[in-house]
Design goal:
heterodimer, A: 336 residues, alpha/beta, TIM Barrel, 8-stranded parallel β-sheet, 15 helices, 49% helix, globular, B: 214 residues, Methyltransferase, Methionine Synthase (B12-binding Domains), Chain A, domain 1, Rossmann fold, 5-stranded parallel β-sheet, 9 helices, 54% helix
Chain lengths: 336, 214
């Protein structure tokens, strides 16, 4: 295997040849003030302008040394394209949905040109730009929200979970199934634009729902999504999901991106032979408030546990110090 | 009598929202003490729900339905209490801090606190320091509960505590913090009085702070 960033990441995705060192990767955002300052790009511009989006993603590879580039920083690009009112935030604040258009569980009207809406188009254009710049050298990672997360945005999280709790399965299923084609289409479009891998982010996290909810409502849908898409998928579900690792492994994804709350040795032991594992350096304590040494130790722990792709557990806080991000790269460059 | 109370308690735990009003009405018609229905059935049920949530036996969907069921039952009982209203265990302001629009955790804590007999003023989301201080002065609560989901907004909690101190209000109020990125270490660091890992913890702390342990 030729040793470059892309090949190390792709090999890690399938548990292949290890090469001289593990790969450092970010399935979710590593945008932070330090990187914004380095390239002169900020939020909300980097959510809405393809060149700015791509430039900030490139900085993760060129300035910090990650083996991946991942240009989607928000979780609301799809919701905005579907008509939800979005506050795009600012340099210190991530975007969020302000009003939920389908709080009454009315049918979701999916525009025929949903992927041409500016908030989706920008991601596809940014991926194409990255392909031209680093294609074949760094692994280009796209990101798409799954139907569960989109339901939070379209119906409101509490409203959606209340329907789940009331046992209104038909209502819940209808919304998920109406949204599923958006997820599939956006994933496939990102592959066509030049993504090597796409992250399926679907927040059926233990902080909100149980493994039985995932198994009943979402696992069959994830299995359908993974059957219909044309490339490697990393599932991202944050929170402590120790109680549902095996269910995730059955979803048909190629890798699972997980948090520090799930012990990496435990995760590798339980599902490491079925899917690759990505993560799981702690954000609030290590990357945000800790020292480079704290981060380095956690990254080394993950490497020694057998985690395939080493990186932050989730989108990093915007004020994360750059030297803490660099400590992840230092840990992987030390080799196995 | 105990049967009636247990039936109501089980209905709340099981989230039987369609049946609760009738069950409570029957208990009242049968001569049960309204205060007993609240304390021994409705509040007792939410204690069980809180513990089940804390131990991972149930999750937010079930908790939302149980809280909704408890509230529906409470609405039937309240008008029958002597004087028309019960004496709250204490007064609490709840809010999600500035820059943060996430409210599900705060809402759950609010519901649980109401279920446990506290008077709660839910100020909503994205609450700046000035607005919070103004409300603390106006409502004079026993406890201020602050929630944040984002690592980017949790630092707002420290600003609120700093301003309470600056305005000489800190000693007359307990500050309770919670939310996904918050932990005991952070709570201690910013000088909060308590950290609740979940809604049940928050109720336990509120009881401790107000000296109203069941």
């Amino acid at each position: 295997m030729k040793i470059n960033s892309r090949n190390l990441v792709m090999s890690a995705m399938f548990g292949g040849r290890r090469g001289p060192r593990p790969a450092a990767g970010n399935p979710t955002s590593i945008a932070c003030h330090g990187l914004m300052d380095k390239v002169g790009v900020s939020f909300p511009e980097a959510h809405l302008n393809a060149n700015a989006m791509a430039e900030l993603a490139l900085a993760g590879h060129e300035v910090v040394g990650f083996d991946t580039v991942m240009p989607e920083y928000s979780v609301v690009q799809e919701a905005a394209a579907l008509g939800a009112r979005v506050d795009w935030g600012d340099r210190d604040k991530m975007p969020d949905v302000k009003e939920f258009p389908n709080a009454d569980f009315s049918d979701i009207q999916i525009p025929a040109d949903v992927l041409e809406k500016p908030s989706c188009r920008v991601v596809l254009d940014a991926i194409a730009i990255l392909r031209r710049h680093v294609g074949g050298r760094a692994a280009i990672i796209g990101k798409v929200m799954g139907p569960w997360t989109m339901s939070y945005h379209m119906a409101g999280t509490q409203n959606f979970l209340l329907a789940v709790g009331m046992g209104e399965g038909a209502k819940v299923s209808r919304m998920l199934r109406q949204l599923m084609p958006v997820t599939v289409a956006f994933i496939n479009a990102q592959f066509q634009a030049g993504a090597d891998i796409v992250v399926l982010a679907d927040h059926a996290t233990r902080n909100l729902v149980g493994p039985y909810h995932y198994e009943q409502h979402l696992l069959p849908i994830h299995q359908e999504i993974t059957a219909q898409v044309g490339g490697p998928i990393i599932l991202h579900v944050c929170g402590n999901c120790s109680d549902r690792l095996e269910l995730f492994a059955r979803s048909g994804v190629d890798a699972y991106h997980f948090e520090w709350q799930v012990d990496s040795r435990e995760a590798v032991r339980r599902i490491g032979n079925q899917v690759s594992l990505a993560g799981n350096v702690n954000n609030p304590q290590a990357l945000l408030q800790g020292t480079p040494e704290d981060v380095y130790k956690q990254a080394r722990y993950a490497i020694e546990a057998g985690v395939h792709l080493i990186g932050p557990e989730c989108a990093i806080p915007l004020s994360t110090p750059l030297e803490n991000l660099r400590a992840i790269v230092a840990a992987v460059r030390e080799g196995y | 009598m105990a049967d009636h109370l247990n039936t109501i308690k089980d209905a709340v735990i099981g989230g039987k929202h369609a049946e609760i009003k009738e069950l409570v009405q029957k208990a009242l018609d049968g001569g049960l003490d309204p205060g007993g229905i609240i304390n021994d059935a409705l509040i007792a049920a939410m204690d069980v729900v809180g513990k089940d949530f804390g131990s991972g036996k149930i999750f937010v969907p079930e908790m939302l339905v149980a809280a909704m069921t408890m509230k529906a039952g409470l609405e039937i009982v309240k008008p029958r209490l002597a004087g028309g209203a019960s004496q709250p265990r204490g007064t609490i302001i709840m809010a999600t801090v500035k820059g943060d629009l996430h409210d599900i955790g705060k809402n759950l804590v609010t519901m649980m606190l109401e279920g446990a007999g506290f008077k709660v003023f839910d100020l909503g989301v994205d609450l700046g320091v000035d607005k919070l201080i103004e409300q603390v002065k106006a409502l004079n609560p026993d406890i201020l509960g602050l929630s944040a989901l984002l690592t980017t907004t949790m630092s707002e909690m420290q600003k609120v505590i700093g301003e309470l101190r600056a305005q000489g209000l800190r000693d007359r109020i307990k500050v309770l913090v919670g939310g996904a990125p918050v932990d005991q270490v952070f709570a201690d660091k910013i000088g909060a009085d308590g950290y609740g890992a979940n809604a049940a913890d928050a109720v336990e702390l509120a009881r401790r702070f107000t000296g109203t342990h069941a």
